[in-house]
Design brief:
Elements: H1 3-9, H2 35-48, E1 57-63, E2 69-80, E3 83-89, H3 93-100, E4 103-110, E5 115-125, H4 128-137, H5 140-148, H6 158-171, E6 183-197, E7 205-211, E8 218-222
Bound molecules: flavin mononucleotide (FMN).
Flavin mononucleotide binds next to β2, β3 and α3.
């Protein structure tokens, strides 16, 4: 295919793709003062929904040292009243970005529930002990993978990666696979949490909680859709 044919073959008009969101609504009367209660409620429903495979998959957006935004999916590993935990390679592109800009954004889209949650917050590394605790729960293969992959670096080939894994398999033969020091958990402490519930006629419900840094109280506001 020449360049011109290729340009004609690629593309879709998606302007007629739309659906009406009608399943639920969200109002002020149904929430407590702490947004983590609502997050817990929504997460439990998403997690138990047969139509959602990975309720804990979330998009993490960071800003690079040069100021370029980048989003990618990571898995939520835990949440507490303090915030949201995910595990990654501290030397990866996202790790370097967080080093430069601690402000990050997490977002969940639970399609089957017509719900979105957007969290703005500050990311910090957890203690090595907390990261060790999580690493120990991972299957041996994925622990070896953490050693074998310098996440986000350019590699010459797939064979190179497989050879790396083989070499770490040999290195750790008969031994416990400890956590690489450059892999670990981050905690995102939220300052803003927005809950979005799809509604008919694009008149969606949006409730935003913003943390007051002095009083640690959450302010609740409704946003226009
Ligand atoms: C469903 C899903 C789950 C993922 N979970 C993680 C994760 O928990 N941690 C992680 O570092 N990367 C995870 N990834 C891979 C990331 O999206 C990304 O490719 C990787 O972290 C490198 O990103 P970076 O180069 O921007 O740092 C996941 C990808 C998908 C699609």
């Amino acid at each position: 295919m020449d360049k011109k044919q290729n340009e004609q073959a690629v593309g879709e008009d998606l302007s007629m793709e739309r659906r009406s969101y009608e399943k639920y609504h969200l109002d002020e009367a149904s929430v407590t003062d702490n947004p983590m209660d609502l997050f817990q409620g929504w997460y439990n429903i998403a997690h138990s929904s047969a139509d959602i495979e990975e309720a804990n998959a979330m998009t993490l957006c960071t800003i690079s040292p040069e100021g370029t935004p980048r989003g990618r999916v990571v898995l939520l590993k835990r949440f507490t009243w303090e915030g949201f935990y995910f595990y990654t390679n501290y030397n990866s592109t996202k790790g370097k970005s967080i080093e430069a800009h601690h402000d990050v954004c997490l977002s969940f889209f639970w399609d089957a529930l017509e719900r979105q949650v957007i969290i703005e917050g500050v990311a910090e590394k957890t203690t090595p002990e907390a990261s060790d605790g999580y690493f120990a729960t991972r299957p041996r293969g994925s622990r070896l993978g953490a050693w074998a992959s310098a996440q986000s670096s350019v590699v010459p080939s797939r064979d190179f990666l497989d050879a790396q894994l083989d070499s770490y398999e040999k290195k750790f033969e008969g031994k416990d696979v400890t956590r690489p020091p450059h892999c670990g958990m981050y905690l995102v402490r939220p300052r803003v949490i927005e809950f979005w519930q799809g509604r008919p006629n694009r008149m969606h419900d949006r409730l935003r909680f913003t943390l007051n840094k002095e009083t640690f109280e959450w302010k609740l506001e409704r946003l226009a859709p």
